[in-house]
Design a protein that fits this description.
Oligomer: single chain
Largest sheet: 4 strands, antiparallel
Number of helices: 0
Number of strands: 8
Radius of gyration: 14 Å
Shape: elongated
Structural class: mainly beta
Helix content: under 10%
Strand content: over 45%
Length: 136
């Protein structure tokens, strides 16, 4: 599994584009999930945003643009892809923002500022811990 993203540094904030993800895993017999991605600055989880949920797909195309304030040289971006859980029994707070129902982690990736601070970045990053039901 891999996700593609692009970003550039603004005067007070980091602009991040979470474009798509391909080859997301799912549990056998369950079919495609309803994935979404949360992007944050490692260690600054109040600085985060979430894409919309894409229904019934293993290859979501979000084309989501977000902005993270408080970014500094040396920071690392985190991308976590979750499957939306529609049950009414599990509620949680993720990165200080209440995003609703808990989802299963489908994979995660990180990108150090060394990769994009000088010239920006446009490309794919490999997901790790890929597979539904992976503990967040």
């Amino acid at each position: 599994s891999s996700c593609s993203a692009g970003h550039s540094l603004g005067p007070t904030a980091l602009k991040v584009a979470v474009l798509s993800c391909k080859g997301i895993s799912t549990m056998p017999g369950l079919g495609p999930s309803d994935p979404y991605c949360v992007c944050s600055i490692f260690g600054k989880h109040d600085q985060s945003f979430k894409t919309k949920v894409m229904r019934n797909t293993l290859n979501p195309i979000w084309n989501h643009r977000g902005e993270l304030t408080g970014f500094e040289a040396g920071d690392t971006l985190e991308f976590k892809v979750f499957a939306k859980d529609y049950s009414n029994t599990m509620e949680f707070k993720l990165f200080g923002n209440d995003f609703g129902k808990k989802g299963d982690l489908l994979g995660e990736a990180s990108l150090s500022s060394d990769w994009f601070l000088k010239d920006g970045f446009s490309g794919e990053v490999q997901l790790t811990n890929a597979g539904i039901g992976t503990p967040p």
